[in-house]
Amino acid sequence: MADVAVPRSAWLKPFIGLQALRAAMALLLAAGWVTLELYTVRADTAAKAADAAATARSDVESLIDRASAAAVQMQASEASPGNGGVALTARMLHLERGLQPARSLFLYDAKGRFVAATLPLLPGEDDVSRSPWFRAAARDPQPGVMIIIAGTHAPLSDGDGVMIARTIADRAGAFAGVAGTFVSWSAFRTLLSPDSLPPGTQVAVLDGADGAPVLRFSVAGNRAATWLDTALSWAGEARNVSATVALPGGFEWHATAGALAELSAAEERVILWGAPVIAAGLLAAFAPCRRTGSKADAQAPLARRAAPALEPDWLWELDAAGRLVGVGGNAPQPLIAAAGVNFLDLVAGDIRSSDLRDAIGRRAPLDNLELSLALPCAAGGSRRRILLNGRPVENTGGFWGTAVEVGAAPGSDWQARDS
C-alpha cells in the first residue's frame, strides 16, 4: 500500500487548538480580574451613597427637632398682637440661635395676624390668614404636631422653600396661633448634599404622597462615561447606583450616582493595563518551551531566562523608552499609582541599572538582575531590593517580566513584603 501524505494542516490542528485554549483561559482570568475590580469600585460608591442618605436624613431631622424645641416654648398667652413687644422678640432671638440654617423664627395668632419675628416685618406680611400653610394649620389644628410644607413662600421675605411650624393651643385646647421658621431652598439643599456624596450625583426630593419632585439638584464634578462603564454593563452590573431614604414631613430623598464616579484617571490606567499584563503573564506561563524549526533554538533560552528563580511577587511591563505601562500582582501601592513614570529613573541609584538600560536597548533577556528600586512619592525615600527576570515584547520594543522582593535596600524602612 502506498504511503499517504498527511497534510501539514492536519498535524497543526491539535497544536493550534491547544494554544487557542490556553489563550482563552488567560483572557478569561484577566477579564475576571477586571470584573472583580469594577465590582469593588461599584460597591464602594454604593456604600458612600447610602451613607450620604443617612447623613441627609439626620441633618433634616436635627433641624426639625431644633425648630420644634424653639416653637414649643411659644405660649398661647404670647400669641396675641398686644404681646408683640421687644421682650418677646428678644426671647425669640435667643431661641433662634440654634436654628441654623433656618432664616428666622416667627409667631402669628389664631387669625393669622403678625405677633413677632426675628426678621423685620415686610409690607403686606402682617396677615398670613390666606397662606396655604396657615390655612392648613387652622383648618385641622393639632397642638404639638409639626407642620412641614415644601414649596411655600417665605412669610417674612422673598423666595420659596420649606415651612416648619407648630400649632399653639390655649389651656382649653383651642387653636391659638402658629410658631415656626422658614428654610430657603438653597439652605435646605445644604442639608441634603453631604460631603460624602459621589461626584456628579443627581438628587431629587419627592413628595411621598404622589411622588412629585419638590427639589432637584446635581453635585458638581460629573464624570464622562469611559470604556469602563461599558465593561461594567458587560459584567452584568448597572452603570449607576442609587440610595433612597424617607425624610420627615412625608418626603423622600433619592440620589443617583455613576457607579464609577470616584474612579480617578490613574486608577483607570491601573485597571486598563492590569488586564493585559496579567494576560501576558499567564500566556507566557502556559506557552510551551519546545517549538519546531529555528525559532525553537532562539526562543527556548529566552523562555528559560524569563522564568524567575523564585516565585514572583508582581508583574511589570515597560515601553521602549523604559516607562512603566503596566503593573500587576502584589506590587507596592506607590508603584501602582505611578503608572507612566520611567522605571529606569526609579533604579538609577543602583550601579547595575545600566544592565537594565542595555537590555532594553538591545532587546536582550534579563536573567536574575538584582536592583535597588526607589518607590515613587514614598515617604523618606523608601527603597526595595528586587530581582528582575524579563523578556522583550514582540513588535512593541518594550519589556515585560517578573519581580521578586529579596529584602530591604540600605536606608529603607521596609521590613517585610506587603501582605
In short:
The protein has 419 residues and is of the alpha+beta class. It contains 10 helices and 14 strands.
Notes on the structure:
The protein has 419 residues and is an alpha+beta fold. The chain is 36% helix and 25% strand. The protein is built from 10 helices and 14 strands. β1 and β2 form a beta hairpin. α1 (8-71) packs antiparallel against α6. It is elongated and about 100 Å long.
Tags for this entry?
419 residues, alpha+beta, Beta-Lactamase, five-stranded antiparallel β-sheet, 10 helices, 14 strands, 25% strand, disordered C terminus
Instruction: Give the CATH class of the domain at 264-408.
Output: Alpha Beta
Count of DSSP strands? 14
Roughly how many Å is the radius of gyration? 35 Å
The CATH topology of the domain at 264-408, please?
Beta-Lactamase
Count of alpha and pi helical runs? 10
Content of β-strand: 25-35%
**Major sheet details:** 5 strands, antiparallel
Question: Roughly how much helix do the residues carry, as a percent range?
Answer: 25-40%
Please provide the ordered H/E string of secondary-structure elements. Answer: HHEEHEEEHEEHEEHHEEHHHEEE
Poorly predicted runs:
1-13, 289-308, 409-419
Shape: elongated
Structural class: alpha+beta
Which homologous superfamily in CATH is the superfamily of the domain at 264-408?
PAS domain
| Sheet with the most strands: spatial strand order | 2-1-5-4-3
Q: Would you identify the CATH architecture of the domain at 264-408? A: 2-Layer Sandwich
